[in-house]
User: What shape does this take?
Amino acid sequence: MRTIIALFVWLFVSMPALATGISALSDEDAANGMKQALTQGAGVAVNKLGVANGFLKNPEVKIQLPGTLQQVGGVMRSLGMGKYTEGLIVAMNHTAETAAAEAGSLLADAVKKMPVEDPKKILAGGDEAATQYFRETTSDELAQKLLPIVKKATDQAGLLRKYNEFAGKGAKLGLVAEKDANIESYVTQKTLEGIYLIMAEEEHLIRNDPMSQESELLRKVFGSLK
Assistant: This one.
């Protein structure tokens, strides 16, 4: 008898919690909560990456040489010409941090304008589902808008000169016949990859402990997933 009574008590206590799950959310709250989490993640990414050595000292996002140029860099290091390799890597990462620092408004605008269909399904998709959806729907447009910022930062860091110098040394060694890649497009893509990575990490933190969030909407939306 005690077991049956205990079971009824558990059901009575649990039913309100079950009723407030994700299915009880409105589509509007789900979409707004997801966008707020992405906006917060974008802000964290800019604050972490858009500072001195934000890319260079973070092994998760540090930009290495593109493609086959990694082999060129290895050969040049072995020949005592590592300063050209290291100089290019440092310049690429400083360019990325400058671009990231100026990307805040682009990211916020992209989140605001992002179309969201079936937000509850996206929210239920996993620890990084919102960030992955954001990446899939905005990466091409953001790359186009970020490229001019990267080009400006490239000029400031002397990156193109360093790249040409590096490629020229590689050509003399018979390792580079022509440019391996468009360095500005490459740095743009790597900058975005770093931003998306930090955003995904922030989303994971929000999902893991929604009740610690200051935003009532985030607590409500992501708390419903628990």
